[in-house]
Amino acid sequence: LLAGTALAGDARGFYAALRRDPHWSYQTPAELLSFYNELKVQTAAALPTAFTQVPRADFAIRLVENYREAWAPPLSYQRATPNGTTSAVLYVNAGGIEAQPITAPAAGFFREALPGHHYQLAIQQERADLPRFRRYGGDPAFVEGWGLYAASLGEELGLFRDTESKFAALMAELHCAAGLVIDTGLHSQGWTRPQAIEYLQSRSPIDATTVREIVDRAIALPGEALACGMGARKIQGLRARAAQTLGRAFDIRAFHLQILDGGSMPLDILESKVNLWLDGAH
Predict the structure, then answer these.
(1) 63 in the Ramachandran plot: left (φ > 0), alpha (ψ -120 to 50) or beta?
(2) What is the mean pLDDT of residues 121-125?
(3) Which H/E stretch holds residue 106?
(4) Nearest CA among 176, 253, 251, 273 for reference residue 217
(5) CA-CA distance, 233 to 141, in Å (whole number)?
(6) How far apart, in whole angstroms, are the C-alpha atoms of residue 130 and residue 263?
(7) What is the longest distance spanned by two Cα atoms in the chain?
(8) Which of 62, 64, 123, 179 is 20 to 30 Å from 246 by CA-CA measure?
(9) Once rounded to an integer, what is the mean pLDDT over residues 117-141?
(10) Is the pLDDT confidence value at 11 over 50?
(11) What band does 61 get if pLDDT is binned at 50, 70 and 90?
C-alpha cells in the first residue's frame, strides 16, 4: 500500500505523518462535524452499489457531552429507543481539539454508522415480523463483526480515493486483530496490562495513548474484541464461499441481503442461513 509513497515500508512513519498532515486534521469541532456530515451524504449516495435495502430511520451527528470527552471513543453509535422517543445518534468526540488537531478516518464512520452499526441495527429494528428479542437484541459477534466488515467496504463503495484512507481502514483491521489476541491473553492466559501494551506496541504503528486506550477497553469489556474479530472473519469467509460457489452469478447486493435481512444471529446460524441460500441458488 505504501509502495508509491515517500514512506514506503515505514508504517510507523506514515502514521506519524498522517497525524501531522493538516489535510487530514481538523482544528475545530465545527470542522469535524462538517466532515462527518459530508461523508454521511457521500456514503448514502454510494450504498446502492452494494446494498438493496435502505433503512427508513435516520441518525443525527452530535458532539459528545463535555463530561464524556475524557473517556468516550472518537466515534460511538447509540441506536434509537424501541418506542421511537429518542432517535439514533452518532456521537463525535472532539475533546482537546483546540490543543491537538484530530484526524478523522472514514473507516470509523463506516463501522459505526453507514453501512455499519446504524445501517444493520436500523434494518433489524424495522423488521416488525421479527420477535422483540431479535429486533432489539444483538449477538455481539454478529453486530461487532458486521461493523468491522462494513469498515472495509470503503474502497468498493468508491469512498477510499487515496492511500491515507486505505491505510486508516487497514489500521482498523489491524487493531481488531491485535485486540483479539489481547482479549484472549488478558482474560484467558493471565496477561498483565503491561504485557498487553507491549504486545500492541510491537505490532501496531500507533501512538502510546491509543495503545493504552485499546488495552484498557479490552480489560473493561471482556470478549468484545474477540467477538469483533471472529464475526468479521466469519462474514468475510461466507462472502468468499458465496463468490466461489456462484461464480459470475455472484451479486454482492444479494449477499449483503442474506447477511442482514434476518437481523442479528449467532454465527453458526448465520452460516447455515447462507448455506441454504447457496444450495438454492445453483
Answers:
(1) beta
(2) 95
(3) helix 106-112
(4) 176
(5) 10
(6) 8
(7) 58
(8) 123
(9) 93
(10) yes
(11) very high
Query: Are residues 114 and 49 in contact, defined by beta-carbon separation less than 8 angstroms?
Result: no
- The three cell numbers of residue 190 are 493471565
Tracing cell 473493561 back to the chain, one arrives at 220
For residue 245, what is its C-alpha cell?
460457489
Run of H or E including 136: helix 132-136
In angstroms, the CA 107 to CA 173 distance is: 10
Q: How, if at all, do strands 75-78 and 59-63 pair?
A: unpaired
Cis peptide before 73 (omega within 30 of 0): no
Q: Are 137 and 264 in contact (CB under 8 A)?
A: yes
For residue 103, the surrounding DSSP H or E stretch is strand 102-103
Question: Three cell numbers at 88?
Answer: 439514533
Checking phi first, is residue 21 left (phi over 0); if not, alpha (psi -120 to 50) or beta?
beta
CA-nearest of 63, 68, 51 to 110 is 51
